[in-house]
From TrEMBL, chain A:
Residues 103-292 form the ABC transmembrane type-1 domain. Keywords: Cell membrane, Membrane, Transmembrane, Transmembrane helix, Transport. It comes from the Bacteria. This is Peptide/nickel transport system permease protein. It is found in: Cell membrane. Gene3D superfamilies: MetI-like. GO terms for cellular component: plasma membrane. InterPro entries: BP-dependent_transpt_permease, MetI-like, MetI-like_sf, OppC_N. Belongs to the binding-protein-dependent transport system permease family. The chain crosses the membrane at residues 39-58, 107-132, 152-176, 216-238, 271-295. GO terms for biological process: transmembrane transport. It is a multi-pass membrane protein.
UniProtKB/TrEMBL annotation, chain B:
The keyword ATP-binding applies. The keyword Repressor does not apply. It is found in: Cell membrane. It holds the Pfam family oligo_HPY. PROSITE patterns: ABC_TRANSPORTER_1 (PS00211), ABC_TRANSPORTER_2 (PS50893). This is Oligopeptide/dipeptide ABC transporter ATP-binding protein. Its main location: membrane. GO terms for cellular component: plasma membrane. GO terms for biological process: peptide transport. Belongs to the ABC transporter superfamily. Residues 6-256 form the ABC transporter domain. CDD domains: ABC_NikE_OppD_transporters. Keywords: ATP-binding, Cell membrane, Membrane, Nucleotide-binding, Transport.
From TrEMBL, chain C:
It comes from Oceanobacillus polygoni. Coiled coil: none annotated. The chain crosses the membrane at residues 12-30, 99-120, 141-162, 168-184, 225-251, 271-294. CDD domains: TM_PBP2. The keyword Transmembrane helix applies. One of its GO terms (cellular component) is plasma membrane. Residues 93-290 form the ABC transmembrane type-1 domain. This is Peptide/nickel transport system permease protein. GO terms for biological process: transmembrane transport.
Length: 304, 321, 304
């Protein structure tokens, strides 16, 4: 009897999930119908490709200094050469190569930080929503506190204390960005908690952590995916901002933010130094936002 | 009862959705006489609400009036400019809706919302309008109208809200009142009160009514003549007496059979076996064929036309050729 | 009013949590003494200073006295400015407010008409342009936008000053830079809430009354859209200040953003702490304000 009702509950829970998540086939159909979704996916795939094969794609070592070709303009301009498609900077470094390598940092920091904040946020959201009461109250005050401090401000203080490095940057961005997960997952848990299959599972004595892993986790996955995608976009902007301020990625590692920051001093003479990395950031973020918006439309029944 | 003052002629309103074209109103012709109450009955999706919205020219994209005429006092409303149409709406033709709570704007006071059409159509100042609104509120049986004037909709009960809607609709003394399921969202006792009120008011204001409903109890109470719609088309039209005594179309019969006696109300009044056909892909024959108990060979292959079988009684059915 | 009092009381634990986090970070950051004394200070001098400012006490004692001082507005002395940190921050606030208010005004002037137009003419070319511009505005890092504006208006055209504060001309570029991201967010918000509201029954009722469509859109629909708009905009204060930090750095705008980033770079922790607490207090007050405005705008909710 117990086993049987468990099976029924599982089936019910899975049916609810399926209703929300849909099948792969439906997804791809919906993806192709949305132009921006398709464009977003293509951009993201392209950036990932560039980041993974950076050593093969980049024409130069991004840090190779070449005193014989300083401030070379992009190839289509007067004085430009096809040797440096997007020109060179004040040290003769090839901008295209620097941008290609920069994608590695952006994606690495973006994805790793979001995964970290996802883990923290989802755990706190699940605990807070599921157990409620005093614990919930305390955790939500924590969320409020974090929301009251601009993310960039928090990161700055962290970085001032621990000193800038890729690892600190990932940890810092992970630690400051979890609140949106916690809030949404908590809300989701609160509503799913009242659904029949969870009540039934409880009534036949299924343990709490099993209810969480078996019934709640799968149901918050779609929310998780949507926030994560959009968070990668904002994290990439944040990373480049911090690097721009000189508190993020440190040389010799190349980040779009630092390339941009270097170029800022030569605006009057070499506009391309500050322009191209910004375009790279904008296109990347745009692609991720397109993909994320599409995912939200498909996964989140509330926005329909 | 006078001559007919509003006529729909071969009206077609289609919705052009991503999946295809839905003929929500498919070649509907009807007329309403002065002081008459005409009811349109049908299940949801039968096209009865779209018919009434078409009459007000309130169809939004992807919907569109494809063809046909809406003749009102000798003019075709389909050809009216936006501005001319606005002068008709709320003034000569007014409308009340099913759900009074969501049909009233939550952020404006009742008085503000009723005043609007008076100010718009009767060239009245705010002060004069307030006077008229309070008169109207009294007429629809609202106690302490001065206070209700300054209330927000959410502070009123469901019945009170519907009275407010009625006051709003009748404030410019319209020739035609379209009532789209006016009592469906209300409690049974309140339903009866609202129906009584409406009957009193149409007598007083000499307003014609186009009543949209799925509730045959309401039809028996209010209507003079009845149109039954199915799949975007009229399937039967007759006076209310004949409809209940001698229904001809199998669908009408089904509706009557599944309806409990008047005042004995249930949640879902209409239940005929089978489902409404997909409006994207109506059968070539009779649209009711799949659910019809008396279905014949012809029904599946040839689409029946609306035929007058007796003066004032028309039916769309092969049984009555 | 009961409600507001309750909300005010909730602020206390939030501020305590923030002060705790900040204090812990600074505690971990280690010895401020090294920075406060000249390089050639003797060990004895260092020890003396440590003892005199209570650095030899245990963590909780130090935190306690820290909170006690902060409540009185004493964040310590900035060693860089040689004066009370709070008053240094206080002096910089008007500049930041000026920038933020200018940015919000620009954003509102752009977002309200475009948000409404694109919602009322869904899928028209104006809608495509407005939504497209909004998503690009969101994807652009604002420091890059700032640099591009400098490149165009200051370097190429030479019509507006590159940096600093003073005349109205100085305000234009920073305000546009900060305003663009906000405008993008606002446009999306107004568009989506207007789209939702235009589908409501009461809009159909308004139309059925024969009133002008201007009245339907700007009175009936927009008055409802104003509720989420004002609320969410007030809740965006944290994002706004985050953006101001970077914008101020790009344009050398003498507000708290610039002050803070200099303080982080020079490890002037008194200033950093004062900035964080002041910014958090502003954000929290704005959130409270958002809550109150929401209750005033929506007659369905009573203020009690």
């Amino acid at each position: 009897m117990g086993e049987q009702s468990k099976t029924i509950i599982d089936a019910d829970s899975q049916a609810y999930m399926r209703k929300r998540n849909g099948t792969f086939k439906r997804w791809s159909k919906l993806l192709l119908r949305s132009k921006t979704g398709t464009v977003g996916l293509l951009i993201v795939l392209f950036i990932v490709f560039v980041a993974v094969f950076a050593p093969l794609l980049a024409p130069y070592n991004p840090n190779a200094i070449n005193p014989s070709s300083l401030h070379v303009p992009p190839s289509w301009m007067e004085g430009g050469s096809t040797a440096h498609l997007l020109g060179t900077d004040n040290l003769g470094r090839d901008i295209l190569s620097r941008i290609i390598y920069g994608s590695q940092v952006s994606l690495l920091v973006g994805i790793a930080a979001v995964l970290l904040s996802g883990i923290i946020g989802v755990s706190i959201g699940l605990i807070s929503g599921f157990y409620g009461g005093f614990l919930d109250n305390i955790l939500m005050r924590f969320v409020d506190s974090f929301l009251a401090i601009p993310t960039i401000l928090f990161s700055l203080v962290f970085l001032a204390v621990f000193g800038p490095s890729i690892m600190t940057l990932i940890v810092v961005l992970g630690l400051t960005n979890w609140t949106s997960y916690a809030r949404l997952v908590r809300g989701e848990v609160l509503s799913i908690k009242e659904r029949d299959f969870v009540r039934a599972a409880r009534s036949i004595g299924v343990k709490n952590n099993k209810i969480i892993t078996r019934h709640l986790m799968p149901n918050v996955i779609s929310t998780f995916i949507v926030i994560s995608t959009l968070s990668v976009a904002s994290t990439i902007i944040l990373e480049s901002s911090l690097s721009f301020l000189g508190l993020g990625i440190q040389p010799p590692t190349v980040s779009w933010g630092t390339v941009l920051s270097d170029g800022r001093d030569y605006l009057a003479t070499s506009w391309w130094l500050a322009t191209f990395p910004g375009i790279a950031i904008t296109i990347t973020v745009l692609g991720i936002i397109f993909l994320g918006d599409w995912l939200r439309d498909v996964l989140d029944p509330r926005t329909k | 009862m006078g001559e007919s003052f509003i006529q729909l002629k071969n009206l077609k309103t289609y919705f052009h959705t991503e999946e295809g074209t839905v003929p929500a109103v498919d070649d509907v012709s009807l007329s309403i006489k002065k002081g008459e109450t005409l009811a349109i009955v049908g299940e949801s999706g039968s096209g009865k609400s779209v018919t009434s919205l078409s009459l007000m020219r309130l169809i939004e994209p992807p919907g569109r009036i494809e063809s046909g005429e809406i003749l009102f006092e000798g003019h075709n409303l389909v050809d009216y400019s936006k501005k001319k149409m606005r002068a008709v709406r709320g003034n000569k033709i007014a409308m009340i809706f099913q759900e009074p709570l969501t049909s009233l704007n939550p952020v404006f006071t009742v008085g503000n919302q009723i005043s609007e059409s008076i100010i718009e159509h009767q060239n009245k100042s705010k002060k004069e309008a307030k006077q008229l609104v309070i008169e109207m509120l009294t007429k629809v049986g609202i106690p302490r109208p001065e206070k209700v004037f300054h209330s927000y909709p959410h502070a009123l009960s469901g019945g009170m809200r519907q009275r407010v809607m009625i006051a709003m609709a009748l404030s410019c003394n319209p020739e035609l009142l379209i009532a789209d399921e006016p009592t469906t969202a209300l409690d049974v006792t309140i339903q009866a009160q609202i129906l009584t009120l409406m009957k009193e008011l149409i007598r007083e204001f000499e307003t014609s009514i186009l009543l949209i409903t799925h509730d045959l109890g309401v039809v028996a109470e209010m209507a003079d003549r009845v149109i039954v719609m199915y799949g975007g088309q009229i399937v039967e039209e007759t006076d209310v007496y004949t409809l209940f005594k001698h229904p001809k179309h199998p669908y009408t019969k089904g509706l009557l059979a599944s309806t409990p006696k008047v005042h004995e109300l249930k949640e879902e009044l209409i239940s005929i076996s089978g489902t409404v056909p997909n409006p994207l892909d109506y059968p070539i024959g009779c649209r009711f064929a799949d659910r019809c108990e008396s279905v014949m060979e012809t029904c599946r292959t040839v689409h029946p036309e609306l035929k007058e079988i007796k003066p004032g009684h028309t039916v769309r059915c092969w049984l009555h050729e | 009013m009961n409600y507001i009092v309750r909300r005010m009381l909730q602020i206390i634990p939030v501020l305590l949590i923030i002060s705790f986090i900040v204090f812990t970070l600074v505690f971990i950051a280690g010895d401020p003494v090294a920075l406060m004394l000249p390089d050639d200070a003797t060990l004895e001098e260092i020890e003396q200073l440590r003892e005199s400012i209570g650095l030899n006490e245990p963590f909780y004692v130090q935190y306690g006295s820290y909170v006690f001082r902060v409540v009185q507005g004493d964040f310590g002395e900035s060693f860089r400015y040689g004066q009370d940190a709070l008053s240094v921050v206080w002096e910089r606030l008007p500049a930041t407010f000026e920038l933020a208010i200018a940015a919000i005004i620009i954003a509102i002037m752009v977002a309200i008409p475009f948000g409404i137009w694109s919602a009322t003419k869904q899928n028209s070319s104006i809608d495509l342009i407005a939504t497209g511009a909004a998503v690009v505005g969101k994807a652009m890092p604002n420091f890059w936008l700032g640099i591009m504006l400098i490149l165009f208006f200051s370097v190429t055209l030479g019509v507006l000053p590159v940096s600093g504060r003073g005349s109205f001309a100085h305000l234009i570029l920073p305000a546009i830079t900060l305003g663009t991201g906000i405008a993008a967010e606002m446009t999306r918000l107004i568009r989506s809430s207007m789209l939702e509201i235009l589908n409501q029954d009461y809009i159909r009722t308004a139309k059925s009354k024969g009133i002008k469509s201007v009245q339907v859109i700007y009175k009936h629909a927009f008055r409802n859209a104003l509720i989420p708009f004002v609320t969410i905009t007030a809740l965006q204060t944290s994002t706004l200040i985050g953006g101001a930090l970077i914008t101020e750095t790009v344009f050398a705008w003498p507000g708290i953003g610039q002050l803070l980033i200099q303080a982080v770079n020079t490890r002037d922790m008194a200033i950093v702490q004062a900035c964080v607490m002041i910014i958090a207090a502003i954000v929290i007050l704005m959130n409270l304000l958002a809550d109150i405005i929401y209750r005033i705008l929506d007659p369905r909710i009573k203020l009690d």
